[in-house]
């Protein structure tokens, strides 16, 4: 099902996340070196490309890798506080990021589901801008992918809905999350225990974005 959308989002103000180091039809992994402040959050929407197709996904996994300097500092009995603060605040950390593919953009519109091909290796990955997130989440088809994905937990599902709601103007956030709750109720009608847990997380998301 397609909706109106731009083929390739404007990346001028998007933050560079890293480059694709592994890719399948349903997810891809990104390698990068980032400061702690620049590491994106669980549930953040990101974009990459395969030819003329812009692929949209959500972050479901983050792995921070230690290097030789990290190990040296960690082995000290009492590392100096200023050294620890400097490594946390200023040092680029090797990061591996897991991204679940939610859909893709082409010239004719926005599509939900997996693209014909995964992103190319070493393709750059960027964060999505609020306007791009609003356009992509205008239809709630992406929620099914999050509900059914084995890779992503329900915490990631709630985080993604929180990120999507935060991209909307304040007056529209509550309505978006209510519609999301209704869609979750439909998708999880046969899993009442899981549904109750997810709706509790969604209520917390509403509080986080000031939609209560």
Notable traits:
6-stranded antiparallel barrel; 212 residues; 37% helix; disordered N terminus
Describe what you observe in this structure:
The protein is of the alpha+beta class. The chain has 7 helices and 8 strands; from the N terminus they run βββββααβββααααα. The protein has helices at residues 68-74, 81-89, 130-136, 142-148, 154-166, 170-187, 192-208; strands spanning 2-3, 16-23, 27-34, 45-50, 53-64, 93-106, 109-112, 124-127. A 6-stranded antiparallel β-barrel has the order 2-3-6-5-4-8. β6 and β7 form a beta hairpin. α5 runs antiparallel to α6, α5 (154-166) packs parallel to α7 (192-208) and α6 (170-187) runs antiparallel to α7. The protein is globular and about 55 Å long. The two termini are 32 Å apart. Residues 1-11 have low confidence and may be disordered.
Write the topology of this structure.
Layout: E1 2-3, E2 16-23, E3 27-34, E4 45-50, E5 53-64, H1 68-74, H2 81-89, E6 93-106, E7 109-112, E8 124-127, H3 130-136, H4 142-148, H5 154-166, H6 170-187, H7 192-208
Based on helices, strands and strand pairing, what is the structural class? Answer: alpha+beta
Sheet having the most strands: 6 strands, antiparallel, barrel
Number of helices: 7
- pLDDT under 50 segments (min length 5)? 1-11
Overall strand count: 8
Order of helices and strands: EEEEEHHEEEHHHHH
Distance between the termini: 32 Å
Radius of gyration: 18 Å
> How do the strands of the widest beta sheet line up side by side?
2-3-6-5-4-8
Strand content: 25-35%
Q: What's the mean pLDDT score?
A: 86
Indicate the percent of residues in helices: 25-40%
